[in-house]
Design goal:
The structure is a single chain. A hairpin with a 4-residue loop joins strand 9 (154-157) and strand 10 (162-165). Residues 1-49 have low confidence and may be disordered. The protein has helices at 73-78, 92-95, 180-183; strands at residues 51-52, 64-67, 69-70, 83-89, 98-105, 112-118, 128-135, 142-148, 154-157, 162-165, 168-173, 201-204. It is mainly beta.
Protein backbone atom coordinates (compact mmCIF):
# COMPACT_ATOMS: atom_id res chain seq x y z
CA UNK A 1 0.00 0.00 0.00
CA UNK A 2 1.11 3.61 -0.40
CA UNK A 3 2.14 4.73 3.07
CA UNK A 4 3.94 7.99 3.23
CA UNK A 5 4.54 11.42 1.66
CA UNK A 6 7.83 12.40 3.26
CA UNK A 7 11.35 13.27 2.23
CA UNK A 8 12.82 10.06 3.69
CA UNK A 9 11.84 6.42 2.96
CA UNK A 10 9.32 5.11 5.52
CA UNK A 11 10.59 2.68 8.08
CA UNK A 12 8.54 0.51 10.43
CA UNK A 13 9.38 -0.41 13.99
CA UNK A 14 7.69 -2.20 16.84
CA UNK A 15 8.90 -0.99 20.23
CA UNK A 16 7.68 -2.82 23.30
CA UNK A 17 7.39 -6.46 24.22
CA UNK A 18 9.83 -8.69 22.21
CA UNK A 19 6.92 -10.85 21.12
CA UNK A 20 5.53 -7.93 19.15
CA UNK A 21 8.74 -7.38 17.16
CA UNK A 22 8.14 -10.27 14.75
CA UNK A 23 5.88 -8.42 12.37
CA UNK A 24 3.73 -5.33 12.01
CA UNK A 25 0.96 -4.67 9.58
CA UNK A 26 -1.26 -1.67 9.14
CA UNK A 27 -4.88 -2.43 8.54
CA UNK A 28 -7.93 -0.34 7.95
CA UNK A 29 -11.60 -0.87 7.55
CA UNK A 30 -14.28 1.38 6.28
CA UNK A 31 -15.36 4.09 8.68
CA UNK A 32 -18.83 5.55 8.20
CA UNK A 33 -20.16 8.53 10.06
CA UNK A 34 -23.05 9.61 7.82
CA UNK A 35 -26.65 8.54 8.35
CA UNK A 36 -29.66 8.62 5.99
CA UNK A 37 -31.73 11.78 6.26
CA UNK A 38 -34.93 9.82 6.89
CA UNK A 39 -33.46 7.35 9.40
CA UNK A 40 -33.33 7.99 13.16
CA UNK A 41 -30.54 5.44 13.60
CA UNK A 42 -27.40 6.78 15.29
CA UNK A 43 -24.13 6.83 13.40
CA UNK A 44 -21.32 4.46 14.50
CA UNK A 45 -19.56 5.52 17.69
CA UNK A 46 -16.43 7.62 17.53
CA UNK A 47 -13.98 7.83 20.44
CA UNK A 48 -15.47 10.39 22.85
CA UNK A 49 -12.05 12.02 23.18
CA UNK A 50 -11.59 12.62 19.45
CA UNK A 51 -12.86 15.91 18.08
CA UNK A 52 -14.94 15.26 14.95
CA UNK A 53 -15.96 18.12 12.69
CA UNK A 54 -19.44 18.37 11.21
CA UNK A 55 -19.95 15.88 8.38
CA UNK A 56 -19.29 17.37 4.92
CA UNK A 57 -21.95 17.47 2.24
CA UNK A 58 -20.51 14.31 0.64
CA UNK A 59 -20.77 10.85 2.17
CA UNK A 60 -17.11 10.90 3.26
CA UNK A 61 -16.55 10.57 7.03
CA UNK A 62 -15.77 13.79 8.86
CA UNK A 63 -12.08 14.43 9.65
CA UNK A 64 -10.79 13.46 13.08
CA UNK A 65 -8.70 16.04 14.94
CA UNK A 66 -6.40 15.43 17.92
CA UNK A 67 -4.67 18.04 20.06
CA UNK A 68 -1.29 16.76 21.24
CA UNK A 69 0.25 17.53 24.62
CA UNK A 70 3.82 17.93 25.87
CA UNK A 71 5.13 14.59 27.11
CA UNK A 72 6.64 15.69 30.45
CA UNK A 73 6.65 18.63 32.86
CA UNK A 74 10.32 19.30 32.04
CA UNK A 75 9.58 19.61 28.32
CA UNK A 76 6.54 21.76 29.06
CA UNK A 77 8.76 24.13 31.04
CA UNK A 78 11.35 24.28 28.25
CA UNK A 79 8.76 24.72 25.49
CA UNK A 80 5.82 26.52 27.12
CA UNK A 81 4.28 27.46 23.77
CA UNK A 82 4.49 23.99 22.19
CA UNK A 83 1.34 23.10 20.28
CA UNK A 84 0.55 20.38 17.78
CA UNK A 85 -2.60 19.28 16.00
CA UNK A 86 -3.15 16.10 14.02
CA UNK A 87 -5.99 16.03 11.49
CA UNK A 88 -6.89 12.78 9.76
CA UNK A 89 -9.11 12.63 6.68
CA UNK A 90 -10.64 9.15 6.78
CA UNK A 91 -10.60 8.33 3.06
CA UNK A 92 -9.44 4.70 3.05
CA UNK A 93 -12.84 3.46 1.92
CA UNK A 94 -12.81 5.87 -1.02
CA UNK A 95 -9.16 5.87 -2.14
CA UNK A 96 -7.40 3.13 -0.17
CA UNK A 97 -5.54 5.39 2.28
CA UNK A 98 -6.08 8.20 4.77
CA UNK A 99 -4.48 11.66 4.91
CA UNK A 100 -2.67 12.33 8.18
CA UNK A 101 -1.71 15.99 8.59
CA UNK A 102 0.42 17.24 11.51
CA UNK A 103 0.99 20.92 12.28
CA UNK A 104 3.17 22.13 15.16
CA UNK A 105 4.57 25.33 16.63
CA UNK A 106 6.54 26.41 19.68
CA UNK A 107 9.07 23.59 19.22
CA UNK A 108 12.87 23.72 19.10
CA UNK A 109 13.88 25.49 15.87
CA UNK A 110 15.63 23.70 12.99
CA UNK A 111 15.09 20.29 14.55
CA UNK A 112 14.07 16.90 13.12
CA UNK A 113 11.29 14.88 14.74
CA UNK A 114 10.04 11.34 14.05
CA UNK A 115 6.30 10.54 14.05
CA UNK A 116 4.71 7.30 15.21
CA UNK A 117 1.33 5.67 15.58
CA UNK A 118 1.55 4.03 18.99
CA UNK A 119 -0.29 1.57 21.19
CA UNK A 120 0.08 3.67 24.37
CA UNK A 121 0.58 7.44 24.26
CA UNK A 122 3.14 7.48 27.09
CA UNK A 123 5.96 5.22 28.24
CA UNK A 124 6.43 2.30 27.82
CA UNK A 125 4.47 2.90 24.56
CA UNK A 126 3.97 -0.74 23.54
CA UNK A 127 3.81 -1.47 19.80
CA UNK A 128 4.50 1.43 17.43
CA UNK A 129 4.57 2.18 13.71
CA UNK A 130 7.07 4.69 12.30
CA UNK A 131 5.18 6.78 9.72
CA UNK A 132 7.53 9.68 8.87
CA UNK A 133 9.42 12.81 9.88
CA UNK A 134 9.09 16.57 10.00
CA UNK A 135 11.58 19.41 10.50
CA UNK A 136 10.89 22.69 12.25
CA UNK A 137 11.87 26.01 10.72
CA UNK A 138 13.81 28.81 12.40
CA UNK A 139 10.65 29.77 14.33
CA UNK A 140 9.98 26.28 15.67
CA UNK A 141 7.06 25.69 13.30
CA UNK A 142 6.46 22.68 11.05
CA UNK A 143 3.83 20.80 9.09
CA UNK A 144 3.78 17.59 7.11
CA UNK A 145 1.21 15.30 5.54
CA UNK A 146 1.46 11.51 5.42
CA UNK A 147 -0.75 9.23 3.34
CA UNK A 148 -1.36 5.81 4.86
CA UNK A 149 -4.07 3.73 6.49
CA UNK A 150 -4.64 5.34 9.89
CA UNK A 151 -8.11 4.15 10.80
CA UNK A 152 -7.80 0.92 12.76
CA UNK A 153 -4.03 0.74 12.24
CA UNK A 154 -2.54 -2.20 14.11
CA UNK A 155 0.59 -4.24 14.79
CA UNK A 156 0.23 -8.00 14.49
CA UNK A 157 2.59 -10.79 15.55
CA UNK A 158 1.67 -13.78 13.42
CA UNK A 159 3.69 -16.19 15.58
CA UNK A 160 1.85 -15.35 18.78
CA UNK A 161 -1.40 -14.18 17.14
CA UNK A 162 -1.19 -11.03 19.28
CA UNK A 163 -2.71 -7.90 17.76
CA UNK A 164 -2.21 -4.40 19.16
CA UNK A 165 -4.30 -1.42 18.08
CA UNK A 166 -2.32 1.73 17.26
CA UNK A 167 -4.79 4.46 18.20
CA UNK A 168 -2.41 7.05 19.69
CA UNK A 169 0.12 9.47 18.17
CA UNK A 170 3.49 10.72 19.34
CA UNK A 171 6.65 12.32 18.01
CA UNK A 172 10.25 12.15 19.20
CA UNK A 173 13.47 14.16 18.85
CA UNK A 174 15.20 12.38 15.95
CA UNK A 175 18.68 13.23 17.30
CA UNK A 176 19.34 12.25 20.94
CA UNK A 177 21.39 15.42 21.43
CA UNK A 178 18.49 17.71 20.52
CA UNK A 179 16.78 17.31 23.90
CA UNK A 180 19.97 17.85 25.94
CA UNK A 181 19.41 21.60 26.25
CA UNK A 182 16.25 20.83 28.20
CA UNK A 183 16.96 17.50 29.88
CA UNK A 184 20.75 17.48 30.13
CA UNK A 185 23.47 15.42 28.48
CA UNK A 186 22.42 12.30 30.39
CA UNK A 187 18.93 12.28 28.87
CA UNK A 188 17.81 8.89 27.52
CA UNK A 189 18.79 7.67 24.07
CA UNK A 190 15.82 5.84 22.54
CA UNK A 191 15.30 3.79 19.37
CA UNK A 192 12.59 5.97 17.82
CA UNK A 193 14.43 6.66 14.56
CA UNK A 194 15.67 4.67 11.59
CA UNK A 195 19.21 4.52 12.92
CA UNK A 196 17.95 3.30 16.33
CA UNK A 197 19.27 6.47 17.99
CA UNK A 198 16.77 9.14 18.98
CA UNK A 199 15.88 11.42 21.86
CA UNK A 200 12.83 11.41 24.08
CA UNK A 201 9.21 11.79 23.08
CA UNK A 202 8.33 15.48 22.69
CA UNK A 203 4.51 15.32 22.39
CA UNK A 204 1.72 12.75 22.36
CA UNK A 205 -2.04 12.50 22.03
CA UNK A 206 -2.66 11.65 25.69
CA UNK A 207 -6.22 10.46 26.26
CA UNK A 208 -7.29 11.44 22.75
CA UNK A 209 -7.50 8.50 20.35
CA UNK A 210 -7.72 7.78 16.65
CA UNK A 211 -10.77 5.78 15.53
Amino acid sequence: MSMFNTSRPPRRYLVGAPALAASALLGGTAYANAQPAASPAASPAVSPTASVAAAPASNNPAPVKLQLQTSSPQLAACFPHAKSTVTVDLTTDAVGKDKFHLAASGLKPNTDFTVFLIEKAGAPFGAVEYIGDFTTDSYGKAANTFRLIVEEAFAFNNETQVRKELNSVGFWFADPKDDDGCLGAASPVTQFDGDASAGVQMMNSGVHYLP
